[in-house]
Amino acid sequence: MSLPGGVERRQFDGGDEALSTRGEPAYGEPVVDGWRRWDARRSKLGATLELGLHTGLSAGDAVLYLGAANGTTVSHVADFAGPTYAVEFAPRPVRDLVEVAEARDNLVPLLKDARQPETYAHVVESGLDAIVQDVATRGQADVALANRKFLADDGRLVAAIKARSEDVTEAPEDVFERVLDQLREGYEVLATERMEPFHEDHLAVVATPK
Ligand SMILES: C[S@@+](CC[C@H](N)C(=O)[O-])C[C@H]1O[C@@H](n2cnc3c(N)ncnc32)[C@H](O)[C@@H]1O
Q1: Residues 130 and 54: beta-carbon distance below 8 Å
Q2: Is 132 inside any structural domain?
Q3: Which residue has a Cα nearest atom 16 of ligand 1?
Q4: Residues 171-208: tens digit of each pLDDT
Q5: Which positions in this protein are listed as binding S-adenosyl-L-methionine (predicted)?
Protein backbone atom coordinates (compact mmCIF):
# COMPACT_ATOMS: atom_id res chain seq x y z
CA MET A 1 0.00 0.00 0.00
CA SER A 2 1.39 3.42 -0.82
CA LEU A 3 0.53 5.83 1.97
CA PRO A 4 1.40 9.54 1.97
CA GLY A 5 4.21 10.50 4.34
CA GLY A 6 2.68 11.31 7.71
CA VAL A 7 0.05 8.58 7.43
CA GLU A 8 0.89 5.36 9.28
CA ARG A 9 -0.70 2.06 10.17
CA ARG A 10 -0.77 1.72 13.94
CA GLN A 11 -2.24 -0.57 16.53
CA PHE A 12 -5.08 0.80 18.57
CA ASP A 13 -6.78 -0.53 21.70
CA GLY A 14 -8.10 -4.00 21.17
CA GLY A 15 -5.14 -4.73 18.91
CA ASP A 16 -6.74 -3.62 15.67
CA GLU A 17 -4.59 -1.93 13.06
CA ALA A 18 -5.79 1.26 11.44
CA LEU A 19 -4.60 4.24 9.47
CA SER A 20 -3.60 7.20 11.59
CA THR A 21 -2.16 10.69 11.46
CA ARG A 22 -0.43 12.70 14.15
CA GLY A 23 -2.20 15.80 15.40
CA GLU A 24 -4.73 17.33 17.77
CA PRO A 25 -7.82 15.15 18.32
CA ALA A 26 -10.82 16.56 16.42
CA TYR A 27 -13.93 14.40 16.85
CA GLY A 28 -13.45 12.01 19.78
CA GLU A 29 -11.36 9.53 17.76
CA PRO A 30 -9.04 7.10 19.59
CA VAL A 31 -5.48 8.41 20.01
CA VAL A 32 -2.34 6.41 20.87
CA ASP A 33 0.98 8.21 21.41
CA GLY A 34 -0.37 11.28 19.59
CA TRP A 35 -1.52 9.22 16.55
CA ARG A 36 -5.21 9.71 15.72
CA ARG A 37 -7.15 6.77 14.38
CA TRP A 38 -8.42 7.42 10.82
CA ASP A 39 -11.40 5.14 10.28
CA ALA A 40 -11.92 4.11 6.63
CA ARG A 41 -15.61 3.54 7.36
CA ARG A 42 -16.03 7.18 8.32
CA SER A 43 -13.89 8.65 5.57
CA LYS A 44 -13.94 8.20 1.79
CA LEU A 45 -10.31 9.29 1.52
CA GLY A 46 -9.39 6.91 4.35
CA ALA A 47 -11.11 4.10 2.41
CA THR A 48 -9.29 5.11 -0.78
CA LEU A 49 -5.94 4.75 1.02
CA GLU A 50 -7.04 1.55 2.75
CA LEU A 51 -7.98 0.04 -0.62
CA GLY A 52 -4.40 0.66 -1.77
CA LEU A 53 -5.01 3.19 -4.52
CA HIS A 54 -1.95 5.16 -5.49
CA THR A 55 -3.26 8.67 -4.83
CA GLY A 56 0.00 10.54 -5.38
CA LEU A 57 -0.67 12.45 -2.13
CA SER A 58 2.51 13.39 -0.24
CA ALA A 59 3.47 15.05 3.03
CA GLY A 60 3.46 18.84 2.68
CA ASP A 61 1.13 18.91 -0.36
CA ALA A 62 -1.00 22.00 -0.96
CA VAL A 63 -4.58 20.68 -1.01
CA LEU A 64 -8.05 21.94 -1.89
CA TYR A 65 -10.64 19.81 -0.08
CA LEU A 66 -14.19 20.05 -1.49
CA GLY A 67 -17.04 18.93 0.76
CA ALA A 68 -15.29 19.26 4.12
CA ALA A 69 -18.46 18.88 6.25
CA ASN A 70 -17.54 19.14 9.95
CA GLY A 71 -13.88 18.40 9.30
CA THR A 72 -13.54 14.70 10.07
CA THR A 73 -11.43 13.75 7.05
CA VAL A 74 -9.88 17.13 6.33
CA SER A 75 -8.48 17.19 9.89
CA HIS A 76 -6.38 14.12 8.96
CA VAL A 77 -5.39 15.67 5.64
CA ALA A 78 -4.19 18.82 7.38
CA ASP A 79 -2.11 16.64 9.74
CA PHE A 80 0.15 15.48 6.88
CA ALA A 81 -0.39 18.11 4.17
CA GLY A 82 0.78 21.70 3.81
CA PRO A 83 -1.76 24.48 3.19
CA THR A 84 -5.20 22.86 3.17
CA TYR A 85 -8.22 24.82 1.92
CA ALA A 86 -11.49 23.27 3.11
CA VAL A 87 -14.65 24.22 1.20
CA GLU A 88 -18.09 23.47 2.64
CA PHE A 89 -21.35 25.26 1.79
CA ALA A 90 -23.55 24.19 4.73
CA PRO A 91 -23.21 26.70 7.61
CA ARG A 92 -23.88 24.21 10.40
CA PRO A 93 -20.96 21.80 9.84
CA VAL A 94 -18.71 24.79 9.12
CA ARG A 95 -19.06 25.78 12.79
CA ASP A 96 -17.35 22.50 13.77
CA LEU A 97 -14.89 22.86 10.91
CA VAL A 98 -13.79 26.25 12.23
CA GLU A 99 -13.09 24.65 15.63
CA VAL A 100 -11.06 21.89 13.98
CA ALA A 101 -9.08 24.56 12.10
CA GLU A 102 -8.30 26.48 15.30
CA ALA A 103 -5.84 23.76 16.30
CA ARG A 104 -4.27 23.65 12.81
CA ASP A 105 -2.46 26.68 11.39
CA ASN A 106 -2.43 25.20 7.88
CA LEU A 107 -6.20 24.54 7.64
CA VAL A 108 -8.32 27.29 6.05
CA PRO A 109 -12.10 26.77 6.35
CA LEU A 110 -14.16 28.36 3.56
CA LEU A 111 -17.95 28.66 3.73
CA LYS A 112 -18.32 28.49 -0.05
CA ASP A 113 -20.11 26.62 -2.82
CA ALA A 114 -17.70 24.32 -4.68
CA ARG A 115 -19.70 24.92 -7.88
CA GLN A 116 -18.59 28.56 -7.75
CA PRO A 117 -14.78 28.46 -7.53
CA GLU A 118 -14.56 32.12 -8.56
CA THR A 119 -15.88 32.99 -5.06
CA TYR A 120 -12.73 31.59 -3.41
CA ALA A 121 -10.16 32.06 -6.19
CA HIS A 122 -8.78 35.11 -4.32
CA VAL A 123 -7.91 32.91 -1.31
CA VAL A 124 -6.89 29.58 -2.82
CA GLU A 125 -3.50 29.52 -4.51
CA SER A 126 -3.14 27.94 -7.94
CA GLY A 127 -0.63 25.21 -8.79
CA LEU A 128 -2.01 22.98 -6.04
CA ASP A 129 -0.73 19.43 -5.61
CA ALA A 130 -4.15 17.91 -5.00
CA ILE A 131 -7.90 18.33 -4.94
CA VAL A 132 -9.69 15.93 -2.62
CA GLN A 133 -13.41 15.85 -3.40
CA ASP A 134 -16.28 14.32 -1.42
CA VAL A 135 -19.30 16.51 -2.16
CA ALA A 136 -21.99 13.79 -2.44
CA THR A 137 -24.16 16.00 -4.60
CA ARG A 138 -25.56 15.90 -8.13
CA GLY A 139 -23.02 17.10 -10.70
CA GLN A 140 -19.89 15.67 -9.06
CA ALA A 141 -17.96 15.74 -12.38
CA ASP A 142 -18.96 19.38 -12.92
CA VAL A 143 -17.51 20.28 -9.51
CA ALA A 144 -14.22 18.52 -10.32
CA LEU A 145 -14.01 20.20 -13.74
CA ALA A 146 -14.81 23.66 -12.36
CA ASN A 147 -12.00 23.40 -9.79
CA ARG A 148 -9.41 21.85 -12.11
CA LYS A 149 -7.87 25.28 -12.76
CA PHE A 150 -6.40 25.29 -9.23
CA LEU A 151 -4.29 22.18 -9.92
CA ALA A 152 -0.69 22.05 -11.08
CA ASP A 153 -0.26 20.27 -14.43
CA ASP A 154 0.95 17.15 -12.60
CA GLY A 155 -1.53 17.60 -9.71
CA ARG A 156 -4.03 14.97 -8.63
CA LEU A 157 -7.77 14.80 -8.25
CA VAL A 158 -8.71 12.24 -5.58
CA ALA A 159 -12.49 12.01 -5.64
CA ALA A 160 -15.22 9.88 -4.10
CA ILE A 161 -18.18 9.59 -6.47
CA LYS A 162 -21.48 8.70 -4.82
CA ALA A 163 -23.81 7.03 -7.32
CA ARG A 164 -27.03 7.78 -5.45
CA SER A 165 -26.28 11.50 -5.41
CA GLU A 166 -26.42 11.49 -9.21
CA ASP A 167 -29.44 9.25 -9.67
CA VAL A 168 -31.11 6.97 -7.10
CA THR A 169 -32.77 4.81 -9.77
CA GLU A 170 -29.88 4.17 -12.19
CA ALA A 171 -27.48 1.24 -11.68
CA PRO A 172 -24.31 2.52 -9.93
CA GLU A 173 -22.02 1.11 -12.68
CA ASP A 174 -23.90 3.15 -15.29
CA VAL A 175 -23.69 6.29 -13.16
CA PHE A 176 -19.94 5.78 -12.68
CA GLU A 177 -19.37 5.33 -16.43
CA ARG A 178 -21.25 8.54 -17.15
CA VAL A 179 -19.39 10.54 -14.48
CA LEU A 180 -16.01 9.17 -15.67
CA ASP A 181 -16.82 10.06 -19.31
CA GLN A 182 -17.60 13.59 -18.20
CA LEU A 183 -14.46 13.80 -16.04
CA ARG A 184 -12.36 12.81 -19.09
CA GLU A 185 -13.30 16.16 -20.67
CA GLY A 186 -10.66 17.70 -18.40
CA TYR A 187 -8.80 14.87 -16.68
CA GLU A 188 -6.91 11.72 -17.47
CA VAL A 189 -8.33 9.04 -15.17
CA LEU A 190 -5.44 7.11 -13.59
CA ALA A 191 -7.23 4.67 -11.29
CA THR A 192 -10.70 3.74 -10.07
CA GLU A 193 -11.93 1.33 -7.42
CA ARG A 194 -15.31 0.55 -5.86
CA MET A 195 -15.28 1.46 -2.15
CA GLU A 196 -17.09 -1.57 -0.75
CA PRO A 197 -16.94 -2.77 2.00
CA PHE A 198 -16.22 0.66 3.47
CA HIS A 199 -18.81 2.71 1.54
CA GLU A 200 -21.69 1.33 -0.55
CA ASP A 201 -22.11 2.45 -4.15
CA HIS A 202 -19.16 4.84 -4.10
CA LEU A 203 -16.29 4.93 -6.60
CA ALA A 204 -12.79 6.15 -5.72
CA VAL A 205 -11.18 8.04 -8.60
CA VAL A 206 -7.62 9.28 -9.03
CA ALA A 207 -7.07 11.58 -12.01
CA THR A 208 -4.68 14.22 -13.32
CA PRO A 209 -5.41 17.29 -15.49
CA LYS A 210 -5.00 16.85 -19.26
C1 LIG B 1 -20.29 13.12 2.43
S2 LIG B 1 -20.22 14.72 3.14
C3 LIG B 1 -18.49 15.01 3.34
C4 LIG B 1 -17.84 14.28 4.48
C5 LIG B 1 -16.39 14.73 4.65
N6 LIG B 1 -15.69 14.75 3.39
C7 LIG B 1 -15.62 13.87 5.61
O8 LIG B 1 -15.20 12.77 5.23
O9 LIG B 1 -15.39 14.30 6.74
C10 LIG B 1 -20.52 15.78 1.77
C11 LIG B 1 -20.46 17.24 2.12
O12 LIG B 1 -20.39 17.98 0.91
C13 LIG B 1 -21.08 19.19 1.10
N14 LIG B 1 -21.42 19.74 -0.21
C15 LIG B 1 -22.29 19.25 -1.11
N16 LIG B 1 -22.33 20.05 -2.19
C17 LIG B 1 -21.46 21.06 -1.95
C18 LIG B 1 -21.06 22.20 -2.70
N19 LIG B 1 -21.57 22.45 -3.91
N20 LIG B 1 -20.15 23.03 -2.16
C21 LIG B 1 -19.62 22.79 -0.93
N22 LIG B 1 -19.97 21.73 -0.17
C23 LIG B 1 -20.86 20.87 -0.69
C24 LIG B 1 -22.29 18.78 1.94
O25 LIG B 1 -22.87 19.88 2.61
C26 LIG B 1 -21.67 17.75 2.88
O27 LIG B 1 -21.25 18.36 4.09
Answers
A1: no
A2: yes
A3: 135
A4: 999 999 999 999 999 999 999 999 999 999 999 999 99
A5: 72-73, 88-89, 113-114, 134-137
Residue 160 sits in which domain range?
39-209
User: Taking the model in full, what pTM does it have?
Assistant: 0.98
- Output the domain CATH number for residue 203: 3.40.50.150
- State the pLDDT at residue 154: 98
- Name residues contacting ligand 1 (CB within 6 A): 43-44, 67-69, 72-73, 87-90, 93, 113-115, 134-137
Of ligand 1's atoms, which has the minimum distance to the CA of residue 93? 27
Pocket test for ligand 1, best of 41, 134, 199 (most atoms within 8 A of CB): 134
- 89 is annotated as contributing to ligand binding: yes
Whether pLDDT at 153 is above 70: yes
Separation of alpha carbons 64 and 74, rounded Å: 10
> How far away, in angstroms, is 161 Cα from ligand 1 center?
12
Residue 132: partners with Cβ closer than 8 Å, 6 or more residues away: 45, 57, 63, 64, 65, 66, 73, 74, 77, 158, 159
